[in-house]
Amino acid sequence: MKQINIILGLVLTRVRLRIDSLLCNQPKSWLCFCVVFAAPFDTEVSESVVPGLFLQGVLSKDEMRELEEEFMAFVRREVHVEGRDFCDMSGDYTKPIESFSIINIMLPSKYNPRLKGNIYEKRAASITEQLLGSDMALDYDQLLAKPPNKPDAEFKWHQDLAYWPVTKDTRTASFWLAIDDSRLENGCVQFVPGSHLESNLRHHGPLHGDRDKSHTLAATLSEDDKPKPAEIDRGDVTVHHERILHGSGGNFSSTSWRRAWVVAFRSQETIKKEREIGFTHSHNDNLKVLNEVGKESEVIS
User: Fold this and answer.
1) Taking the model in full, what pTM does it have?
2) Where do runs of H (alpha helix) occur along the chain?
3) Record's InterPro entries (predicted)?
4) 257 in a domain, yes or no?
5) Which of 22, 25, 199, 274 is most solvent-facing, going by the fewest CB within 10 Å?
6) Is there a domain that residue 27 lies in?
7) Cβ pair 53, 35 in contact under 8 A
């Protein structure tokens, strides 16, 4: 199994997670993944001890082709997406669509119900249940695309929790599926090892002044931060914790896209509390709600 430096400095363990044979077209229903844990796998994992995973070859070539077709239908604007849920994460909301550098589509399964329960979502849900328990559920999905020749397609450093309501239950599994081979040249994700262990979230500020101009938040790296690139292949997946600091650079390739499909899982109770305050992960959510998320002083109980 190839090596990947994601969130190093912890105990590297190999484990086997069961992929239900009904969900997997592969001849084997058991796959071995490289996993990074803060504790041995046979200890309690319902707490925040799973900072990151690397899962190799989660989807077959045929499965990837089908997902890619659905993905590009959104990029070509063949699927209607409401308001700010189709935006550029590198620019403000006034940026013309033809100039987008990081095409961002929030909640694709909302706008194309055919995507609900797709093979990727089912497989990710199976893995999440094994890692974090049977009460986990899909919180949101997202598509991200950096076209070729977009050196300004930088996704600013951030922790996912800065975008979300802070809750007592910290269990999170955010899956990042590579639609293309993901390399430094075309803007692969980079993680800051150990940042999920910090006692407080980093300070995040709106990239363009306020959340009404742009959804994007930005944190700053410290001199001690040593980002590690996650250079993974098409069909591979990373899974990360809500507090891990990560970001990505521009796409300097003249030929390669850098596309990713995100599905994120939190506990059913956490999702219920999010929806009760009007938070759905849509960029069209009430601005007052968006301005109140990511505050550790206001934990939703």
Assistant:
1) 0.86
2) 61-75, 108-111, 119-132, 268-276, 287-290
3) Phytyl_CoA_dOase-like
4) yes
5) 199
6) no
7) yes
